[in-house]
Amino acid sequence: MIAVARGTTRTAAITIIGGGIMGAVLAYQLARRGMREVVVLERETVASGSIGRATGGLRQQFADELDIIFAREGLRFYRQFIAEMQAEAVPASPPPPPFYQYGYLFLVSDDEAWQAMQGYVALQQRLGVPSELLTPMEVVARWPGLSLITEDLRGASFCSTDGYTDPAAMTRALIGAARRLGVEVYEQCPVLAIQTTRGRVQAVQTSQGRVATPLVINATGVYAALTARLVGIDDLPVYPLRRQLYLCEAVAGLPAELPMVVDQATGFHFRWRDGGLLLGLPHQPSPAEQAASRALETPAFDLTLDPGVWPQIERVIPRRFPALAGLRLRRAWAGLYEMTPDEHPVLGPTEVEGFLCACGFSGHGLMHAPLAAQLLTDYLTTGKSSTLDIEQFGLQRFREGRLLPATRLL
Length: 410
Ligand SMILES: Cc1cc2nc3c(=O)[nH]c(=O)nc-3n(C[C@H](O)[C@H](O)[C@H](O)COP(=O)(O)OP(=O)(O)OC[C@H]3O[C@@H](n4cnc5c(N)ncnc54)[C@H](O)[C@@H]3O)c2cc1C
What we know:
Blueprint: E1 9-11, E2 14-17, H1 21-32, E3 38-41, E4 57-58, H2 65-88, E5 99-100, E6 104-108, H3 111-126, E7 131-134, H4 136-142, E8 155-159, E9 163-165, H5 167-180, E10 184-186, E11 191-197, E12 200-206, E13 209-212, E14 216-218, H6 224-229, E15 239-249, E16 260-263, E17 268-273, E18 276-280, H7 287-294, H8 309-320, E19 329-339, E20 346-349, E21 355-359, H9 365-381, H10 396-399
């Protein structure tokens, strides 16, 4: 039953807008820390946004310190959450989400990238991630079923503790756990307006009624910039980037414990899913598409498949993975990354008192949301963080040109 009855007002101490992975993990962590009257408002259904279209990869192999720390902590959180769900075995609840800890394998073919990869692996190891460098012969020996073309391969990096999960199931499980701790979650409940008085948040107006609240968290993913406009913030730089995924029939002979395999030169990657093979290839948007995206024009949010990507995949496959030739496509879909200029999230307070950001994960939200939620929970409960300084992720950094360092690996 919906408690925000049409036309009525209810109150909440903290209102999270968005029932994606960020909203889910934040609601759960706030409730775990004893916060009461936490409400999640989702305009469609839980996990209907980008997280429901994601690959589900959890990798700690990143190229810069912040990304590695976020991913390392994200992985730690999910493993613990799954273990706790298994131990609790709540009656009539869905089973805990899976975690296929088969690793991530990056195949590197050019000298410069190989040089760089050695530095990234050293950095990962310094930060406690057990990644390793492999020779082409070692890759073939470990995964003979991949039937790789190795002539031009310089080597690979592999981390056995990386893996992949079902991102929508994980989001729903977190929402379920948050509900059991007292969080109220409303679906089909879009936030239409946010009322402020003298620069302070007072209430949000939804399609189902009004919620009087002093604190609003913007966890609306790729729509975060539009949500920020509801409080008069016109410069939150979160914009969409379309990505496409393809689910194909299974290929005989591939290892049962298939890592997420990434051809680093092209970005082509694949893993098992639903008894088939899920694959993707990042494609560069045209200058016109990039401009539309930055301007938040409606077509930039379009989820229609670009037919030009599949032929590119068909060209990439035989050069490295002849075993995948002749793949049979089951279905394909598009989703949106929520990009920021430095590809790090926007977290924490804004100039509008009571309006906080939790968005802009730039395609890494599954991995990075747990630590983001911890930083926000620390900020809201104690005012300071036990891990990273949340201030560095503030919106203000873009206005002052203090972008965070980032190097994209995939
Ligand atoms: C193809 C693809 C593959 C990906 N693969 C990975 C991966 O392997 N690993 C990884 O870590 N990340 C991956 N990502 C990125 C990841 O999906 C996002 O970073 C993540 O979903 C961001 O989480 P979020 O909760 O901020 O946003 P979302 O998941 O988009 O959730 C935001 C929610 O807010 C709701 N909302 C918006 N406006 C309103 C409103 N006004 N009122 C109420 N609700 C509103 C939306 O309906 C939505 O449900 C991938 C993304 C795509 C598209």
